[in-house]
Amino acid sequence: MVLSLNGFIKDIKLGVLMPAFPIDFSDRKLLGRSGELVSAIGLGTWGIRDYRNAERALIHAIEVGLNLIDTAEMYGSGRAEELVGRVAKLVGGDVFITTKLLPQHFTSRDSAIKAARMSLRRLGLESVDLILIHWPNPSVPISTQVKALEAIAAEGLCRYIGVSNFNLSELIEALSSTSKYDIVVDQVKYNVYHRVIERDLLPYAIREGIAIQAYTPLESGSVANDAKLASIGSKYGKTAVQVALNFLICRPYVVAIPKTEKVERVDEFRGALGWRLSESDVDYIEREFK
């Protein structure tokens, strides 16, 4: 199945065209079926080099309405979580924090809870909004991993649960393994150059009401110098970066989580909100970026 916004989805296996999903004009995206709304663009914290600048950028992001911050225990060997915790204390109020735990912790309930408590200690928080399995553990049944993840929520250590780097079959298995808590997010790589999830995972997630959080949405900065994206942006008074982000958040349930340590780049990200590419420009990107 290939997702398109030109009016139809083509199911390759069945060889038929089906109605496509419309462009999503909302800058606040539903977190799965939870009813929770988060900004369509948040900030990631992978690979930080200058923590002082990153702190300023994160604070500014929250101030301008990009209220979602994503981190993980492995980022900076825990230092990124410490940074996010400091930022949360400084800004207070409206900030939605996601962290991810390494897959080796999800062998048992106790191991998962212990890892979550260690993350919370680094964050300086009693609970976090969302905890994800960073990627599936191939040595442990997915059902076991999900039960351990649910145990974290049952302990009151997070409000919501989700997964990261789960393909379609893994996500379906994870969903079928839940007993009390819904999996609200699958965080995966997704950008104009890397659109493999449009074949099956994204249509399924949209249909089932599961949020997709797109990491590496700027392909490590490559989109900034893309002449085709810049040409599209010139029609809107927008940059290539803003076009690339807007393309992603055109999709229902898709949130983009770029990373930066620059305040001015945060403002550029913010400029990707409040408008949408035309269907013809979305179609063009779909054709030209494969």
Write structural notes for this entry.
Helix 1 packs parallel to helix 9, helix 2 crosses helix 3 and helix 7 crosses helix 8 (240-249). This protein has a single domain (25-288), classed as TIM Barrel. 37% of the residues lie in helices and 18% in strands. The strands form 3 sheets. Strands 5-6-7-8-9-10-11 form a 7-stranded parallel sheet. A two-stranded antiparallel ribbon has the order 1-2. Residues 1-19 have low confidence and may be disordered. Helix 6 links the parallel strand 9 (183-189) and strand 10 (211-215). The chain has 290 residues and is α/β, with parallel strands linked by helices. The chain has helices at residues 51-63, 79-91, 109-123, 142-154, 168-177, 201-208, 227-234, 240-249, 263-270, 279-288; strands at residues 8-11, 16-19, 28-30, 37-39, 68-70, 96-101, 128-133, 158-164, 183-189, 211-215, 254-256.
In short:
This protein has helices spanning 51-63, 79-91, 109-123, 142-154, 168-177, 201-208, 227-234, 240-249, 263-270, 279-288; strands at 8-11, 16-19, 28-30, 37-39, 68-70, 96-101, 128-133, 158-164, 183-189, 211-215, 254-256. It has 290 residues and is an alpha/beta fold.
Topology:
Blueprint (H helix, E strand, L loop, with lengths): L7 E4 L4 E4 L8 E3 L6 E3 L11 H13 L4 E3 L8 H13 L4 E6 L7 H15 L4 E6 L8 H13 L3 E7 L3 H10 L5 E7 L11 H8 L2 E5 L11 H8 L5 H10 L4 E3 L6 H8 L8 H10 L2
Parallel strand pairs: 5-6, 6-7, 7-8, 8-9, 9-10, 10-11
Antiparallel strand pairs: 1-2, 3-4
